[in-house]
Amino acid sequence: MKRRHFIQKSTAATVLAGVGGLSLQSFSPSKTKKITILHTNDVHSHIDPFGPDDGRNANKGGVARRATLVESIRMENPNTLLLDAGDIFQGTPYFNYYGGELEFKLMSMLKYDVATIGNHDFDNGIDGLYAQVPHAKFEFVSANYDFTNTVMDTHVKPYKIIIKDGIKIGIFGLGIELDGLVNKDMYKETVYHNPIEIAQDMSRILKEEQSCDLVICLSHIGYYYKNSPDKVSDITLARATKDIDLIIGGHTHTFLPKPTIEKNSVGKNVLVNQVGCFGLYLGRIDFYFEPGKKVTAEGASIIV
Amino acid sequence: MTIKHILKLCLLLLIFSCASSNVSKIEGKRIAIDDSLKANQAIEDFILPYRLHVNKNMDSIISYAPETYSKSDGELNTAIGNLMADAVYSETNPVFNQRTQKNIDLVLLNHGGIRSIISKGNISIRTAYEIMPFENSVVVVAIKGTQMNDMMEYLSKAKRAHPVSYQLQLTLDQNAAVKSATVHGKPIDINKTYYVATNDYLYNGGDGMTFFHPNEGLYVLNYKIRDVLIDSFKKKDTLNPKQDQRFIKLED
Question: Which residues constitute the signal peptide according to the record (chain B) (predicted)?
């Protein structure tokens, strides 16, 4: 038995060595690990649930209910990350009255790990965003916004690496082109770079240099633009890049009943997900890891 | 096997079991946030003082409406639309004049931008949020008289009560063609530059309004339409908007 076990491991390792993927991060043999990714996008200051008389979303949403759900999932699996894909601000009087303070404080109480920046997060200007940063106990990532010449410099990182149960997770952020969407007076000297080129760099850094087991793109560039299919979107991004496992999107308020599976530039599967807006849904993706197990050509089985 | 061999084996095993993990299975779904979930009490308690403050403020009474006003009250001009366009003029012209020493010639908003009725009774800050939930703000655009004529053409074809301020008098004939158009009582001069206040949505081509481009200047006032309404409401104990003759079509 022992010998057989050894042979299996040995074969797997050979395959892995062949593709150059030896890492010392994960270190509990023969145990399946599970990483749960929870996500929201475009919550737009919707703190209270919609009222019973709302024409479209009656009795839906609400941060306090989301907190209950997140808490129960964290109890079930402590190796859970909670992410937000931007447009945290703007949409209810809470934002007009408190400028985003309450949104950030509540997200901190829910123990969000990472968020990216949406166009509406500039609605009180970049100074208005900066003023709320002290209330956020989570981190901001954006790889294609260069904040060097703004007050947000050093407060937004291109990516964040989190290790859970020995699994190394790299999360990078992408934002939408601000010119034409946000007044220049608001975003000031924020410089926008092409998301696809940046994503190619980021996935190389995270996968090859940092040897991440999981690469997640937290995007606010929009799901897909049917009337201008060449416009950069999560779908075009998924197809044009490699080594991204999951794209969590926002901006287009797209209600996906389940994640979309796209093929990347080398024919491997990428998951793209977005959960509409206003905190009506929580997205949940569970990744199961087998240490050293040989991966088939088709990759992991995906159940959506 | 010698001790050496066993040690080598152990080393190999160690290396192999440290090999990077591979994703074997992925499950994805979305979970509805609805009333089947109990609210987290700590979060509720934290929100409460903020909610009470916002509601108290939102419900504070700032004016009174003697009637109910709706954007469907008239064919080409309505009391509520006239109120909004005139409020934009009276609240933003002082700001524009102070910055530029110029005056706004007229205001043009869009019918679809009136998002709610004004109900008879007390008017609160919440009323302004209902009428204008969006964050659009006022811009002033300098355009030529020729484009003013394009605007009149647009208004004649749109056949909707797009709100205009009182400085404009637009009369359509029985066939809905422009019969006369005056600003401050004078016909539109194609060589003159007009300063038109509108919202940033229309300036950017919303509702098919293409006549703001090209232009001779854009002045961004950073004054939200909603704040215009709130500031205007606060100045009047009782609103008294009227449908009038500023934009009409002659009948047979």
Answer: 1-21
